[in-house]
Amino acid sequence: MHWFHRTLGGREGTATDIGFIDRQGRRILGLISRYEGRLDPDALKESFPDLIVTGVTRPGGAQVHIVQIPALVDAKRLHSEVLTPLSSSKSPVQTLLAEMKEIYTRQDADRELIQGAVLIFAEARVYAMLLRIMPNRAVDEPTTERAVFGPKDSFIETLDQNLALIRSHLRDPRLQAEVFPIGTQAPVKVAVLSLEGAVDPKELDDVITRLQKFRPPRVGFVSTLLRPVFGAVWSPFLPADFTERPYRAADFLSRGRIAVLVDGSPWAMLLPVQFIELFIDEEEYLQATTTRYFVRGLRLLAFAISLLGPGLYVAILTVNTTVMPGLLAIAVSSNRQSLAFPILTETVLMLIVLDVMAEATTAMKGVLGPAISIVGSLIVGQAAVRANLASNLGVILLALTALATYITPRYQLTYAVRVFKYVFLLVSGVLGLVGWSAGIIWLAISLSMQRELGVSYLAPLAPTLLGAWSTASPVQNSSQSAVPGYVRRLAPRRR
Amino acid sequence: MSRRIGLAPWSIAGVSFVVTVCMTPVSLGRPVFEYAGYGTLLWMTLAWGAALLGTYLTLTLIDAPLHRWADGVRSFLHYLRAPFFLAGAAAMLHVWLDILGRTQLPGTPRIVVAMLTVGLAVYAVRLGIENVGRVIGLTAVLSLLPLFLLVVGALPNVELRRLLPFPLGTGGIPWVWPMILFAPRGYDILPVFGPLAKGELRKPVYWGMALGGLYLLLSMVEPQLVFGLTAAAQLPSPFLSVVETITSTYLPFQRIAFLSIIIWQMVVFSIVTAYSTAGIASLGIRVFPLTPWAAVLPWSIAVLALAIPILPEDVFTAIKNIWSFYGIIIYFVIPALLLALGRRRAARRAALS
Hints:
The structure holds 2 protein chains of 2 kinds.
Chain A: E1 2-10, E2 13-21, E3 27-35, E4 52-57, E5 63-68, H1 75-88, H2 93-96, E6 100-102, H3 106-114, E7 117-122, E8 125-130, H4 159-169, E9 175-182, E10 188-195, H5 201-213, H6 226-230, E11 241-243, H7 246-254, E12 258-262, E13 268-271, H8 289-319, H9 326-335, H10 343-363, H11 368-386, H12 392-405, H13 411-448, E14 451-452, E15 455-456, H14 485-488
Antiparallel strand pairs in A: 1-2, 2-3, 4-5, 5-7, 6-8, 7-8, 9-10, 10-12, 11-13, 12-13, 14-15
Helix pairs in contact in A: 4-7, 8-12, 8-13, 10-11, 10-12, 10-13
Chain B: H1 9-21, H2 24-27, H3 29-36, H4 40-63, H5 68-104, H6 110-126, H7 129-152, H8 176-181, H9 190-193, H10 202-227, H11 229-234, H12 238-244, H13 257-282, H14 293-307, H15 313-341, H16 345-352
């Protein structure tokens, strides 16, 4: 069975004649006498191998054909809402079937079939009726962003359901969603969400325009939309964050940000995100203020340890050895007497092993992941020390770095740490403390120049906006604005 | 994505703080003790007062309505500041290289540190004044606490009996006084950075100056309290010697003096960057959104050539002394004259009404 297509020229324009030819060579045809633009004949010769055509004889004897892809169509609804009315009533098709639209082109017919619609060829016309049945799962607990006290729902693979989840957490009439398809061959619905009045309308238009100009064959994960919005992103410190928790997406929206959802992807892309927010967990706000700031400070300290710790270790033990206390220097040198590698080589090798283990744990889902982690940390670490390939101090540093790397609430940040610690390691190994501090300055310069959607990545640290710190948290009193100061307090635009 | 240009006033406060702290504690300690003697505290207090006066003059001059001739002088003052900034950046870098090479990290090649610092400054300056403000503001935030820790950490070593009643200075070469009076000089970048501030400027600038001045006072008086005046005047850098006395048996570092290397590396980078940006802008070259390479490269080569130790030490002493004297003229004398003689009274009255 295959499609056929014929274009009939006429004085008033072009009529298109589309339909199917079944296995016996019979034409199942609806002559469409609608005038339309040009179509690509090559594209119209494609066919769907899993297409089914069902013939229905109406009470008056007229023949109607139903075309469908069974895997995408709700069989019960097809029977009750289409087949039964068509076979039992003499009324015209238009009056029998609700939510039906007429199809004029092959492209529209293809699109409707893929979306889960049935095509009804009747009375020399073609109609489409959406009877989609999407295989979706129940709303479950998030797998990577565990919630202890907060809401425990997570996104699923259906866009409509995800929009409903966000609306249930953000019951604000100002919440607006712009939904449009992306993809030239397999279009997928994409939703851009924002809170009217809180978001900068120019930036929102900018994001929507950039996404609408993006014309890939298909869109898989929501993360594939990062490039069309921000261009090529080279910095490991991503300007967007991803979440599987509707509560967090709603919280971001209320802070004047933009969320992007893709049908079929259980993640929301939040943009733009700022450095300081990567250390804030919404569940902190269930704690006392002192506890909250303590935990946040601890995370920042852990971030500094994981990023700068290996570099400092190498700088002090190789170049600037005089800063060590005498007893510690003796202990370190006696521990290192029989080791095979110099400190820089040993540390680089151990960190590479650590990253390999981390990737293996990530790649190996389920119960195998923790098993690999335990094997790596216990057996490999002990074996390395016994084989004189690594010092005990090095193993302690490795363990501390590993723990500190994964203490941050945002998994994306760990990649930035894992990449940049090697940079610090190398400059410290060559230039000592001077190189180490030069590395900090270089990172500060490169991060402070990073700004997306009109918002500085390091705000309110750089630029220093002292008054904006108070709103870097969910609203806690009536006088407080929901949108943080470091998002709103922007300088006038100059081109 | 769109770019937004503008300097947060608190970024300027950060720059003001860093410039105020500058290299004064490590480079000015010995000559001040040597010549001011027990009058150090008094002179530093006077210097702080002079700095507040300088800030007032500078901020007032930025937007004061002036007669035509005075307005012309004010514009020309911009060009006079360029050599001031060039000499300042080079002198700060030179002092730092000297300290680093002699006392802190004798094994570290000076040329590598100089290239590294100027390279980072080029990277920052090239990105425009907005980023310069942000980076130095961030550096100020990062170094504020450690800088004070370095001073506060030595307080257990302080003996108050050494703070004797202080007479005025016991004489010495006259160049020291301009150096002392011009020590807290955070206001010198304001003519360049100030007009780009988006918002109220005076409060953050005075905060930056106050914190910087407080730090200077502590760092200048503390060596006297720790070592005594006679011993402090003999040390090459009394401030760094104080830092060396901070010991810890509870940390994996015998001395926390190595922290000062890191912090001062940041401070020197900030000074070289701020002065380079200000100097290039003073020559009438646009520094935002991107500073042109044609300006950055010759400037950085000039800084590097002046800073690396190929010239006799006396030349640098002269540069430092003349630099302070020159700074007092272009920041105190000329602005005060302009405000006194060149102000348009009618326009002022109109502005007031």
